[in-house]
Design goal:
BioF2-like acetyltransferase domain-containing protein, Aminopeptidase, 2 domains, 29% strand
């Protein structure tokens, strides 16, 4: 049996970023969150595991508190994990085993191509499976629309009867404002997290890799909005901002439908970024989206886990 090339740990400063981004671009499972521009904006710190001559890579998004280093999932970053071509379960397991021992607590999301990873009988280690929904947009719009559930079609019709207006390329600040209002008291996102994402979005938008869309009522009030980030033939539905006035007008249904209409027939997958929440899962699947599983990794190398988590 041929042995694997060595997996080495490299700091952010030691990485060849051009080669890093090239790996993500060519990977079978490339995602926007793994590119250096995304990690630089959204992570407190990050380093990486690199296989051989940049044959496969794994970002390690980390922080430390009271001298204890840990891996965490950065804001607005649905999945990370191991990226490359022709990944095998044994290779993914080798990457997970190579995570330096200095990281005492690990709570990260891997990606769908890592779903068959097995960490073995390691103590205080677990992998659970999470749900995502994706929709292949290569078919004509009429074919995609025929897969909608009746409640989706009914809400789209309601939005049209109310003369709701769909718009692309709206200011990201409007989406962020609605999102912050909607998520207040629900999420742990900080103002700094939103500021970092706004800066990231603006740079990606300049490169043609991000867009914000919205649905307005007849009085030009923004009822439903979202931001998409594009890479590797995927459009990630990454940030959502809905106004309470849009709940009964079909605005959010119309918002997604118009994006599907706009990009139908393209070599593109709409990635809904979840969800394990039953109502959201039903909503996304109602557009004809398919279930895609990805793993969530938890490793505790610190005996006093309860105390540690209160600190972090």
């Amino acid at each position: 049996m041929q042995s694997l090339p060595a997996i080495q740990y490299l700091t952010r400063q030691e990485l060849d970023i051009q080669r890093w981004d090239a790996v993500i671009q060519k990977a079978d499972n490339g995602l926007p969150y793994a590119y250096s521009i995304y990690l630089d904006h959204m992570c407190k710190h990050w380093s990486a595991l690199v296989l051989g001559d940049y044959e496969a890579v794994m970002p390690l998004t980390w922080n430390s508190k009271y001298g204890i280093a840990y891996l965490y999932q950065p804001p607005f970053t649905a999945q990370l994990g191991v990226f490359g071509k022709h990944l095998t379960p044994s290779l993914i397991e080798a990457f997970l085993s190579a995570i330096p021992k200095r990281f005492r607590l690990i709570e990260i999301e891997l990606n769908q191509a890592n779903a068959h990873a097995n960490v073995g009988p390691q103590k205080n280690t677990s992998i659970s499976l999470r749900n995502n929904y994706v929709l292949d947009l290569r078919a004509p719009y009429e074919s995609l629309q025929s897969a909608y559930r009746e409640n989706i079609r009914r809400n789209i019709k309601k939005a049209q009867q109310l003369n709701n207006r769909y718009a692309t390329d709206i200011p990201i600040s409007e989406v962020l404002s609605l999102s912050k209002s909607q998520m207040q008291g629900i999420s742990n996102l900080s103002d700094r997290d939103y500021e970092n994402f706004e800066s990231l979005f603006n740079q990606l938008h300049q490169q043609g890799k991000a867009i914000a869309c919205g649905v307005f009522d007849v009085n030009d009030q923004l009822l439903a909005s979202c931001a998409y980030v594009f890479s590797n033939n995927r459009a990630c539905y990454i940030l959502v901002g809905n106004h309470p006035n849009g709940r009964t007008s079909g605005a959010s249904h119309f918002l997604i439908d118009r994006f599907i209409h706009q990009h139908a027939g393209e070599e593109l997958t709409l990635d809904f970024e979840g969800s394990d929440i039953r109502n959201l899962a039903f909503f996304y699947s109602s557009f004809g989206a398919s279930l895609e599983i990805y793993p969530s990794l938890r490793i505790n190398r610190f005996r006093l886990l309860g105390i540690l988590k209160r600190w972090l």
